[in-house]
Amino acid sequence: MLPNKEDILKVAVFKTSRSGGKGGQNVNKVSSKVELIFDVANAPFFTPEERLLLNEKLANRLDQEGNLHIVSQEDRSQLMNKERTIIKLIALLKSGLHVQKKRKPTKTPKSVIRKRLADKQSVSAKKENRKRPQLD
After folding, report:
1. Residues 17-38: tens digit of each pLDDT
2. CB-based contacts of 49, cutoff 8 Å, min separation 6
3. If exposure means fewest CB atoms within 10 Å of the residue's CB, which of 6, 8, 43, 62 is most exposed?
């Protein structure tokens, strides 16, 4: 189950730095780039099974310590970038905790089989009619 935003913010660590991109001279003065660091292994609201599932699904996004890093520098505002990182984190956790249902194999309906065979026969008859008649 996904924890609420407040619980996530208690565990998450934020780092800010200067970001590149648009902003003119403001870029050189303001630390608007935000990096969110989330420790999946020590999050108190996940069960061991959920931690294992997150470690499997987010393995390519975790560093050696098991921390999840999310960076945002799209906006000029540090607050907006912080909100974006939180939204990205919640989306990642939601997709990481999603368990796909097992697919139940179904039989092909008899009507579909009949229709396919009838289509094959009609195409065959059409092509047979295109041939030149045999002269005996």
Report:
1. 887 766 666 666 778 889 999 9
2. none
3. 6
